[in-house]
Amino acid sequence: MEPIAKNAALLIIDMQKGMADPTLGRRNNPDAEQHIQQLLNAWRQAQRPIIHVRHISRSAASVFRPGQPGCEFQDTLHPLAHEHVVEKNVPDAFSATGLERWLHVRSIQQLVIVGVITNNSVESTARSGGNLGFDVIVAADACFTFDQTDLSGRLWAAEDVHALSLSNLAMDYARVFQTSEILASH
């Protein structure tokens, strides 16, 4: 892996307390938060740009609705005062948030994406970033998803959903690495 750009932004997607809601089901990658924390610490130490993305749901029943505890950032991954926060209402962090402009104003071309849900907000944001011309890297072991039932009623294990989502991204939109590889090239 080539070295990470000096101004590469770490984009932490939807690491909110609501992701622990048991109604979301069984998840994969129980060490994801630890890997995200390792990358966050490295980015803070190097004084590289960090962007925290928070999902703000429009649904009254959602744990991600403003004012609900689930909407808040997880305590160990809470943004510092100088770190940029993006609030979104759809899975894609580029959609109607000003994120693209924020990155261009700072001449940031490379993004390291971590967070949840792999096949939802992570994938849609990485796809948009790749389509917009950013050099997108996804940290495979710093993301997770949940078991998912497809339209035919078949239950897919979170591990399989995660692997397929990352494979989709690696085809055209992003490069996929492990946290250790990113830290080694940091």
Explain this structure:
- It comes from Pseudomonas salmasensis.
- It is a single chain.
- The protein is of the alpha/beta class.
- The protein has a single domain (about 10-185), classed as 3-Layer(aba) Sandwich (Rossmann fold), CATH 3.40.50.
- Helices cover about 30% and strands about 20% of the residues.
- It contains five helices and eight strands.
- The protein has helices spanning about 30-45, 100-105, 120-130, 160-170, 180-185, and strands spanning about 10-15, 50-55, 85-90, 110-115, 135-145, 150, 155, 175.
- It has a six-stranded parallel beta sheet with strand order 3-2-1-4-5-8, with helices on both faces.
- A hairpin with a 5-residue loop joins β6 and β7 (about 155).
- It is globular and about 45 Å long.
- The model has no long low-confidence stretch (mean pLDDT about 95).
Could you provide a short overview of the structure?
Residues 8-150 form the Isochorismatase-like domain. The chain has 186 residues and is an alpha/beta fold.
